[in-house]
From TrEMBL:
The lineage of its organism: Eukaryota, Metazoa, Chordata, Craniata, Vertebrata. It is an enzyme of class 6 (ligase). It holds the Pfam family Biotin_carb_C. Residues 16-463 form the Biotin carboxylation domain. This is Propionyl-CoA carboxylase alpha chain, mitochondrial. It catalyses: propanoyl-CoA + hydrogencarbonate + ATP = (S)-methylmalonyl-CoA + ADP + phosphate + H(+); butanoyl-CoA + hydrogencarbonate + ATP = (2S)-ethylmalonyl-CoA + ADP + phosphate + H(+). Residues 135-332 form the ATP-grasp domain. The keyword Transit peptide applies. Coiled coil: none annotated. GO terms for biological process: lipid catabolic process. It comes from Chrysolophus pictus (Golden pheasant).
Length: 664
């Protein structure tokens, strides 16, 4: 009898839903599907027509198209999604993050149909999703808040008046926003007017709600958030913090857990305030309370995200909890399985957001294309990759440019960072421009390693923009030697066919080569001689010994240089000495005069064009606005002059480098 009771108890614990629909795409849809498979829950994926062959579609038990590529017609199309729920008889919906994850109307419609929303109820979404209401609730719950205006800003003039009253700088942000969209920092009246316009447009585009609020901008803060987990029985926990200060354009780039900055007392105070806020709105599910923390460890409530966060894996690594599983259990009505004293901090986890972006343009402007080669570094110990793409996948202009989330775990921070460096070095992404070079430079930078960071880290460390890794003389010699050896290995391979020379009367074996390697703006002579499977290379009068298996079919090749193992991904050009001599006579392409023309720095859609032929424009004046991956970017004139021609109009789709406007 006791065994039967145990079996029934186990069954009741595991019994949740038979079928669950994921109202999202990409890596988060794949992430939810993995946990559902573990729990024995059947899954339904939704997709737009361009996502028909996406990884999340292949992973799910069922998949249904909900419309064309634009998000408003597919992943935000509530009517189409509700129809799929009825058709597939899904009992629950996990919204992931973004899209409809914090949309109270979607949660209400699900409830009306008797479908479980894997998240908090509509009251909590309404209260916490509205930044104005959430700030008032936070004050009442005795949570520290940032000084600011607690109402809705009506227009640009009122925005300027409020900003002056609060005192510059101010943060203008969407009331219903998140993910860095609909947010602008203003340091004067002009920037406030511009910020009001862009923030309201982005907010309407991303969230269907253009209401804005204004608050004091805390200069040079840390962005630290507390993960909370609550059930429908009044229980709530804080699952420690995540350090999210490395950001660009108010979007996180690198996150870690725990934070190097918090002591146990501050951590507890932040955790208790986060739980107090969750209980004040009768919150149930996983959620995140975000804080700004100044240099004196004073912390201020920023917002509460009533959904799963992008960076949740670092919390899972240090606590051992599966947050998606906990969300599903809570949604079914089960009480939490843990007490606050059960929540550990075991080790250290770091997450890098790998984006299809050009890091040399404003720390990352979107890039599109097909992944011609893709290999995740899963062979590196304690590495987790949350992705929703594969080799051959397209990165399009319609959605967020994230390729994956790369997470490493270690017994301490130093170990987690070492593993992250190795993982980034071994990550193969070709076909699109990506930000791995920036991520690698951040995690090895002395300031980051010491934990001396803030939300201003990137502009402070790279005031003139990111320029890539600056090679030392020793690194340059190693790189030149490796490139030259690879060139020779490829030449030798091309001379053989099935292990024998292509031409039986081929000349005797060649053992030395004089080459020229182009690296950056420099041309460097390199001499290579072969000895068995290794090469002796002379660079700058110094000799280096380079060995490897020389398997050129691999996307990555490990080489050993003077006894040190290296994995290198770099673009160089190698020429023979004769070819290098002849290349001097090749005419160089004249540099384009960019002061008189405006080209699109990224692929996207033209939202607005502010000029017409014959108009006079001033240096710095807005010419047009390009929207890429749901972010709006103002294109400005490089000089004062008359508009000669306009080559685009609102609604046009443009590619990187497309001509937009010409000046006389």
């Amino acid at each position: 009898i006791s065994r039967s009771l145990e079996s029934l108890l186990l069954l009741s614990i595991l019994c949740t839903f038979e079928k669950l629909l994921i109202a999202n795409r990409g890596e988060i849809a794949c992430r939810v599907i993995k946990t559902c498979k573990k729990m024995g829950i059947k899954t339904v994926a939704i997709h737009s027509d361009v996502d028909a062959n996406a990884v999340h579609v292949k992973m799910a038990d069922e998949a249904v198209c909900v419309g064309p590529a634009p998000t408003s017609k597919s992943y935000l199309n509530m009517d189409a999604i509700m129809e799929v729920i009825k058709k597939t008889r899904a009992q629950a919906v996990h919204p992931g993050y973004g899209f409809l994850s914090e949309n109270k109307e979607f949660a209400r419609r699900l409830a009306a149909e008797g479908v479980t929303f894997i998240g908090p109820d509509t009251h909590a979404i309404q209260a916490m999703g509205d930044k104005i209401e959430s700030k008032l609730l936070a004050k009442n719950a005795k949570v520290n808040t940032i000084p600011g205006f607690d109402g809705v800003v009506k227009d640009a003039d009122e925005a300027v008046r409020i900003a002056r009253e609060i005192g510059y700088p101010v943060m203008i942000k969407a009331s219903a926003g998140g993910g860095g969209k609909g947010m602008r920092i203003a340091w004067d009246d002009e920037e406030t007017r511009e910020g009001f316009r862009f923030s309201s447009q982005e907010a309407a585009s991303s969230f269907g709600d253009d209401r804005l609020l204004i608050e004091k901008f805390i200069d040079n803060p840390r962005h630290i958030e507390i993960q909370v987990l609550a059930d429908k029985h009044g229980n709530a926990l804080w699952l420690n913090e995540r350090e999210c200060s490395i950001q660009r354009r108010n979007q996180k780039v690198v996150e870690e857990a725990p934070s190097t900055f918090l002591d146990s007392e501050t951590r507890r105070a932040m955790g208790e305030q986060a739980v107090a806020l969750a209980k004040a709105v009768k919150y149930s599910s996983a959620g995140t309370v975000e804080f700004l923390v100044d240099s004196s460890k004073n912390f201020y409530f920023l917002e509460m995200n009533t959904r799963l966060q992008v960076e949740h894996p670092v919390t899972e690594c240090i606590t051992g909890l599966d947050l998606v599983q906990e969300m599903i259990r809570v949604a079914k009505g089960y009480p939490l399985r843990h007490k606050q004293a059960d929540i550990p901090i075991n080790g250290w986890a770091v997450e890098c957001r790998v984006y299809a972006e050009d890091p040399y343009k404003s720390f990352g402007l979107p890039s599109i294309g097909k992944l011609s080669q893709y290999q995740e570094p899963l062979h590196v110990p304690s590495v987790r990759v949350d992705s929703g793409i594969e080799q051959g996948s397209d990165i399009s202009i319609y959605y967020d440019p994230m390729i994956s989330k790369l997470i490493t775990y270690g017994s301490n921070r130093a170990e987690a960072l070492r593993r992250m460096e190795e993982a980034l070095d071994n990550y193969v992404i070709r076909g699109v421009t990506h930000n791995i070079s920036l991520l690698r430079e951040v995690i090895i930078h002395p300031r980051f390693v010491q934990g001396d960071i803030s939300t201003k880290f990137l502009p402070e460390v790279y005031p003139d923009g990111f320029k890539g890794h600056q090679l030392t003389d020793h690194e340059r010699r190693e790189l030149l030697a490796t490139a030259a050896c690879l060139y020779v290995a490829e030449q030798l391979r091309s001379q053989r066919f099935l292990g024998t020379p292509r031409i039986p009367i081929a000349k005797s074996k060649r053992n030395s080569w004089e080459l020229s390697v182009h690296l950056g703006d420099g041309i460097y002579p390199v001499a290579v001689s072969k000895d068995g499977s290794s090469f002796s290379v002379e660079v700058d009068g110094m000799k280096l010994n380079v060995t490897s298996e020389w398997n050129l079919a691999l996307p990555l090749l490990s080489v050993t240089i003077d006894g040190t193992q290296r994995t290198v991904q770099y673009k160089l050009q190698v020429l023979t000495k004769a070819a290098a001599e002849l290349s001097k006579y090749m005419p160089e392409k004249a540099a384009e005069d960019t002061s008189s023309i405006l080209r699109s720095p990224m692929p996207g859609a033209v939202v607005a064009v502010s000029v017409k032929p014959g108009d006079m424009v001033s240096e710095g004046q807005e010419i047009c606005v390009i929207e890429a991956m749901k972010m709006q970017n103002s294109m400005i004139a490089a000089k004062t002059g008359k508009v000669k021609a306009v080559h685009c109009k609102a609604g046009d789709t443009v590619g990187e480098g497309d001509l937009l406007v010409e000046l006389e």
